[in-house]
Each structure stands twice: as C-alpha cells, then as structure tokens.
Amino acid sequence: xxxxxxxxxxxxxxxxxxxxxxxxxxxxxxxxxxxxxxxxxxxxxxxxxxxxxxxxxxxxxxxxxxxxxxxxxxxxxxxxxxxxxxxxxxxxxxxxxxxxxxxxxxxxxxxxxxxxxxxxxxxxxxxxxxxxxxxxxxxxxxxxxxxxxxxxxxxxxxxxxxxxxxxxxxxxxxxxxxxxxxxxxxxxxxxxxxxxxxxxxxxxxxxxxxxxxxxxxxxxxxxxxxxxxxxxxxxxxxxxxxxxxxxxxxxxxxxxxxxxxxxxxxxxxxxxxxxxxxxxxxxxxxxxxxxxxxxxxxxxxxxxxxxxxxxxxxxxxxxxxxxxxxxxxxxxxxxxxxxxxxxxxxxxxxxxxxxxxxxxxxxxxxxxxxxxxxxxxxxxxxxxxxxxxxxxxxxxxxxxxxxxxxxxxxxxxxxxxxxxxxxxxxxxxxxxxxxxxxxxxxxxxxxxxxxxxxxxxxxxxxxxxxxxxxxxxxxxxxxxxxxxxxxxxxxxxxxxxxxxxxxxxxxxxxxxxxxxxxxxxxxxxxxxxxxxxxxxxxxxxxxxxxxxxxxxxxxxxxxxxxxxxxxxxxxxxxxxxxxxxxxxxxxxxxxxxxxxxxxxxxxxxxxxxxxxxxxxxxxxxxxxxxxxxxxxxxxxxxxxxxxxxxxxxxxxxxxxxxxxxxxxxxxxxxxxxxxxxxxxxxxxx
Length: 685
Ligand SMILES: Nc1ncnc2c1ncn2[C@@H]1O[C@H](COP(=O)(O)OP(=O)(O)OP(=O)(O)O)[C@@H](O)[C@H]1O
Fold this sequence. Notes:
Elements: E1 3-6, H1 9-15, H2 19-34, E2 43-44, E3 53-59, E4 62-69, E5 72-80, H3 81-90, E6 91-95, E7 102-106, H4 107-122, H5 134-139, H6 147-152, H7 156-162, H8 168-178, H9 183-191, H10 208-213, E8 220-222, H11 225-233, H12 236-239, H13 243-249, E9 258-262, H14 268-282, E10 287-291, H15 294-307, H16 311-315, E11 317-321, H17 322-334, E12 339-340, H18 343-351, H19 359-371, H20 378-383, H21 395-415, E13 417-418, H22 420-435, E14 451-454, H23 462-470, E15 479-483, E16 504-508, E17 510-511, H24 516-526, E18 531-532, E19 538-539, E20 545-546, E21 554-558, H25 561-577, E22 585-589, H26 592-601, E23 608-611, E24 620-625, H27 646-664, E25 667-676
Parallel strand pairs: 1-5, 9-15, 9-16, 10-11, 10-14, 12-13, 14-15, 17-20, 21-25, 22-23, 22-24, 24-25
Antiparallel strand pairs: 1-8, 2-3, 3-4, 4-5, 6-7, 18-19
Helix pairs in contact: 7-8, 8-9, 13-14, 17-22, 18-19, 22-23, 24-27
Bound molecules: adenosine-5'-triphosphate (ATP).
Adenosine-5'-triphosphate is lined by residues 236-237, 240-242, 245, 262, 264-270, 484, 487, 512-513, 617, 619, 665.
Region (Disordered): 632-651
Binding site for ATP: 262-269
EC number: 5.6.2.4
C-alpha cells in the first residue's frame, strides 16, 4: 500500500477547482491510497529535472504531481494536465543535509536569474561569501548544486533578490552570513526552520520519507480516508504549522511553565490552540484554555472544534475566561451566584472617603497595589512596594488610603456585593484551601485542571494569575502561556515570577498576518520601544518581521467628521464592490459615539463595526480605523492628569497607543486610517 503525504499546496489548489472535479480528485486519491481497482497509476514525467517526480491522473484533464520514493508519495499539487507537467519540469526536491528537512527548488526560476547573477559577478570582483569556505557552507546545509551560484553572488542586494526563489533553509543562513554574523549566528537562523526536535542521528539525504516526517509544515502523512478528509477539508492553520509554531505547540513535555511572546499575527493563538489539542490527544487530564473575554473564548471554542476531531479528546478541553472561572468557583462554594458591584456604585463609594485623592486614583491604588499584591493588612500595605505609582505616599497618607479601602470593601460587604477582582481573589483563596497550600501538606489536592493554556496573557491582572496558578498543580506541562506585551490594552503590569509562575520564555518573530508595510507602520505607531514584559525586564519589538509585501496603510485627512464618515462609507462600499465579503471587513473607532455613527453610515453593508477594544484578537482582510484625531485618540478623560500621577499618565499613554496598534494590526491585506481636524499624536508622520 502506498504511504501518502500531502503538501499544503494540494488542498489549496484543490479548493480552486470546480465541485465535480474536486469530488473526482478526492475519490481518486482515496482509491490510490487504498490501492483498489481504478486507482490512478503513477506516470514518470518526461524532461523532469527530478527523476522522482510522477503525475497521477486524478480527474478528467487534471493531474496530481507527486514526489515518489519507494512506497512514499508526497502529493504536491493538483493542476490541469499541461500545468501539472510544466510544474513537474520546473521543480526539484531535496533534503537539507544539516537539518534533514525537505527543500523545494524552483529550478526554472533559478536558471532564469543565473545569467544576471553571473553578469554581475563578471563586472565586480566582490564575492559576498568569499570569507566562508565550502566546508562551512556544506556544514550549514548549503546545497551542492546551488553552491556555484552562491559563489557568484557579489552583494546583499542580489541575495535578497534571490530570496523568493530559495528554500528558507538556504536563504536564512546565507542572509545571516551576509549580515556579518558568525557561523553560530547562521546556525541559529537555520535552527529556526527546525520543526521537530533533533534526534542526534545523522541526516540521510536519500531518506525522503524521514525528511517528510521532519517537515510537518511541508507534508502531513494521511493513514486513512478520514485523515485524508481532515487534511483536505480543514482550514490550513489546522494542519500546517510553521516550524517554530510546530516546535512550541507539539514539544513533548515542558518541565517549567512556558511563555510564548510574539508580535501581532505571529500565530500565538494558533500555537495555544494546537498546544491544547496536543495535550488533549495525549489524554493526561482536564485542560482549561483561557482567553481574555467571553466573545474570544466562543471563537476559540469554535476553532478547537475544527482542530480536534476526536470527541473524547475535545471534551478534555474547556474554553473560558478567568472571570467565568472565578464566578463559578465562588458560586459553587457559596451555593448562589455572587452579585457584582457596578462602576458608578464604586465611584460613589470612593467619593464618600476623605483622602484628598480622586476616586480614579484610589481605585488604581486598590487594584494595582492592594489587590495586585494581595495585601490584607495595613501593616503589609505600609511597607509594600508601589510599582508604577509615581506619587509618593507618606505613612499617614497610606493609612488614610487604607481606611478608604476598608470603607469601600466594608460597604460592599454590607450590600452583599463584590468587584470581579475581589471575586477572583476569593476564588484563589478557596482553591488554596482545598489544595492545601495554605494548610498542612496532607490536605486533599483538588485543582480543577491538569493543564492550563492562556491566550492574550498580557491583559491578565496579578489576582487572575494567582487564580490560574492555584487551579493547576505544580507539575510538568502545567501552564502554557501566550501573549504580546505590546498589545496590552489594560492597566496590568505583571511579572509572572511575582505570582509564582516561573516561566521560560520563547519568542515568535514572523507575522503571517501582516504585510511588511502594515507591520513597519504599526511598529512606528506603537513607538517601537520596549514594553513591560511578562517576565522580568522589558520586551523589544526588534526582530519582528513579515513574510510578504502589500499596500502601505492609507491615511486620510478630512475637513469635518461628516466628510470623514462619507469617506468611510465610500471606501468600505468600494471594498464590497471589489468582492471582499463584508464579514472580512472590520471598522473600528475609539469611542462608542463614533462607533454608532459609523454603524449608521455603513448600515446596509453588513461589515463589523466595533470599538478599538473590541478588535482585540480578531482578524480581517481589510480594516478601517476612523476618528484617529487629536482629542479623540487618546481621549483626554482616559488619561490620568499629569499633576496627579505622571507615571500613571505615561502608562495610560502607552496603553492607548497599544490599543490603536492592536486595532491597526488586525488587517491581513489593507489598512485605512482616517481623521478630521488634527491627526492623533500617535500617528506616524
Ligand atoms: N501556520 C499557519 N497557517 C496558516 N495561517 C497562519 C499560520 N500561522 C499564522 N497564520 C496566519 O496568521 C494569522 C495570525 O495568527 P494568530 O491569530 O494565531 O496570531 P497571534 O499572534 O495570536 O495574533 P495577535 O496577537 O495579533 O492576535 C492567522 O489568522 C493566519 O491568517
């Protein structure tokens, strides 16, 4: 029986065929897999550069192209006959001698550019890799047949021009050497292309099947018609992860909690989903996948349904958010649903106190100092550090603030009400009591989950982290956390170490969502500078890159808000006319008022219109962000007055920048930004 591996191009090309042809192709592949009567026969391709290339007649006028080695068939694509033959003649396939992964070579394209590279070499004595010997290049896996051309490359521009024609395993290390990096630097670049852990065995370049197993981004083996259907029908992200994503998501076991950070669109959510699926398949115990909001958790649950086929495994993953978890634990313990205090009620309570500080100041002090550190007594508060709070408080002032906190919490208690953060702290205390970390060692351990996977980690409050920590035992694979400190849109600065999560950090660097033009504009908007990380120290946006080019963001200035709305309606109407499905268009604004106006301007178009906050975690082909004007972004009332607390104000500004950055980085294809009057100070000039 043949063993079949499918490449990502195959389902993509299949999707482009008409329904009857598609059906015939699937039936033919299934027959071929099962080696039954009527199965297509592999036919060699005359004139192919790679003797292992064969075609299979899969439907009338259509052929699959495959690499065949012994009983293994790697199905590359399916195309109309003539195109299939041309495709087979144009490509060759190899095994990278350093990593043992497969490499796809567009030989025809390389032959076309060869003369230009050689002409440049004739007119210049410079050779980009003159300082690197053949042995070193071979050690980096540089292909023997490609080496003569490598030797002719005179400068970095030529190497860059070759990039789209080269396997990443060839371009990556060469680009590192060209930048002046050492062999170690070039190796690091190569290692980024490794998807599965190295076994230490030497690479056999003739063992194509083993190379396919090491290349899950290029090939997935299908052992049954059911698996075949899944690979052909499921969205590509369900099946093919990029090597760094795959390595993180499917690593056998982590000794310590893992923190995966990365810029917008690097696939953090996908990694969180795949890690959850991997743990569920392994069946080691109940998994909680948490994200920021109820809406996002519904979306994650739906995506998990697509990803995990096996019902029993799917049931092992609960998807939710931390607030719901807290609510449930407290409800179960008290036998009824807790009542929450509203924001206005809370402000009124702070106003009853007499500290000389505003309700906003007191609320922050309570949430970011008292609740963040779980301070329970005045003595603890008097000596506690107050990170991020630049207004010094003397001892008597702290005492007054503490009395205010006591007043508010006492009043809430009398009314039988709590805030969400209080509920969260109570839930962790309840779990702590059952797990025994507050009691003697012998108390029964009853953490509700065996693994917790966290998405959008940058916006969780320390009290929420403490709850998550208490909800899972300290054991291998306990916590797997993904987030991006640059996308923080709430006031939560936490180092995981301070809440008992001793995480090891890994970074994803490549955005698969954003074209380079939106990415670099976004980085300038975000300020490019560091953000407080989830581990000690700050995170840089340095090294964040895209895989493709696109259009530069369109920034439009209007004379009046009315004209701006008319401009928005025209722009979005044009997108819809161009055939972009309305659900692939997102429109966002900072204020609820602007959102309402945009909704009414776009009434009949059926596109999603939301606040900047509402854009978190979403993705669209085209995005319009309106009202990015001075006085609206940031809204003055969202900023702490500088004379009240300058460092809180600086943080507010960073948060507001982050918010705009989040909304603008939702666009896969086009970004349109508009304002009337003066531009927001955040917009890059
Ligand atoms: N392996 C993959 N296969 C297909 N598409 C991918 C893959 N990895 C990333 N993408 C594309 O990039 C998008 C971003 O992925 P994801 O939402 O997981 O990123 P993220 O890092 O969580 O983004 P953000 O932090 O901006 O919310 C996906 O929706 C998809 O379009």
